[in-house]
Design goal:
This protein is of the alpha/beta class. It has five helices and five strands, in the order H-E-E-H-H-E-H-E-E-H. The chain has a five-stranded mixed sheet. It is globular, with a radius of gyration of 15 Å. The model has no long low-confidence stretch (mean pLDDT 95).
């Protein structure tokens, strides 16, 4: 989770929402990414999506398994991708009461109607993750009050 926080800090330096993700596959192979939605002008460039894409490309498979660490509870898009990638375990930091899809708003990753469910451990280094996110949005509101309305 510490690596995910470091990735989130890199996102912050780029003006991105500070979310970082780390995927550990096959117990030793590690992939790291952070949000690049603004940089790439891509609504799907969330840290979790990027780390899944990199892992699938480098490993040459879509069934990834392993443990994904994220500094923020994944959204519906990312939670669905985690299920599709057959991730075994999700460990996240801060809850997302507006868009969290792993227990906060909806629980995509543990829904028994899907063919795969994911073990979820939330709240790991939550204070550090929350502090990064709150600082980012506070700064954004101070700079551009109207730009945070829909965030």
């Amino acid at each position: 989770m510490q690596m995910a926080l470091e990735a989130a800090e890199k996102a912050l330096l780029k003006g991105e929402v500070p979310v970082g993700a780390v995927l550990v596959c096959d117990e030793t192979i590690t992939f790291v990414s952070h949000n690049l939605r603004e940089t790439q002008a891509d609504p799907t460039a969330h840290a979790e999506m990027l780390v899944l894409q990199e892992a699938a490309q480098k490993l040459g498979r879509w069934r990834l398994g392993g443990t994904l660490y994220s500094t923020l509870e994944p959204c519906v898009m990312c939670a669905g991708a985690l299920v599709q990638a057959r991730i075994d375990r999700l460990v996240y930091g801060a809850k997302d009461p507006k868009a969290g899809a792993c227990g906060s708003v909806i629980d995509v990753v543990r829904d028994s109607r899907f063919n795969h469910q994911i073990e979820v451990i939330g709240g790991v280094l939550a204070k550090a993750s929350t502090k990064l996110l709150q600082g980012f949005f506070k700064n954004l509101r101070e700079r551009c009050p109207s730009s945070v309305e829909g965030a």
